[in-house]
User: Fold this.
Amino acid sequence: MSPSLTFRTGVRDVLPTVFGYIGVGLAFGIVAHTSHLSLLVVAGLSFVVYAGSAQFIITSMLLLHDPLSAIFISTFLVNSRMILMSTSLAQYFKHESLTRNLLIGTLVTDETFALAMNKQNKTNGKLSFAWQSAANVVAYLVWGISTVVGAILGGLIADPTRFGFDFALTAMFIGLVYLQLISDKHLGMTLQLSVMAFVALAYYFLIGVMSQNFALLVATVAGCLFGMELKKCR
Amino acid sequence: MSISLTELWVILGCGAITVLSRVLPFAFVKSLNMPAWLISFLSFVPITIMTALCCESLFVAHAGHLATLNVANCLAAIPATLAGVLTKSLLMVVVVGIMAMAVLRYFSIG
Assistant:
């Protein structure tokens, strides 16, 4: 990743993450197809809701005829981590206009957030509207198109996981977390490794007693508090 | 190509919920000065959230019991991580990870 922050660099930087979107997007399309959602609904979910894990949950809840209120609450809970990510990311765009801030915010995802955090390690803590928009828009289009293609292919492919594409997303997060670990000079390696171990342990114990999405959120917040205390002690 | 009224409401409602979760923080951060403790807290968000997202696919939850490992994902994670250490390239991590998983599936491991 180069320190350049142009639109073109944004497109280039987001390309490795595209595999994750295609793999999971196809999978979502296929799941939605087998759950009897029409192409229009798949496209609606991907282009209007645009929230990977929430879309899977919405699909299964639609299939079970759950009430609207339950679907809304689940969506909010699954996406509440977006509040943390957006608050974090927004600090880099305070100098930009409100309109530009809102435009960036509209398309933030786990992946583009993680990518941006990696990027700012290379640029002395700077990000640009052009770079972030490129990453956001490419991710948005690839996701939407992959899910629709998945829904069309739904009946044709017997088992898409056979080729390992479902692992793309996990691999991508492993790559992003590793790059974050070695390049975040502010926090340093030891502090980050301690925080990572804490989060992994917390998550491991929490998923026994609460839903995975809630555990993710609690482990994240607890990890941040743990990191703050640890930093103070040094 | 059809869409029911319920589906339409789900798309519009969930769309609004998601976009507000994403956009409101940008509006707040833009207009407020954040206290030092909040900035310190947020500096840990990237590493914690990415770790938690990795854990989500490495552990399998069992309500009321301790979690177990997702063996296939954990095994494929090893070459993927090595690829990261050796190349420092996100693309290589993803490509090696997918190939490792395809090999595991071929031999029905995990």
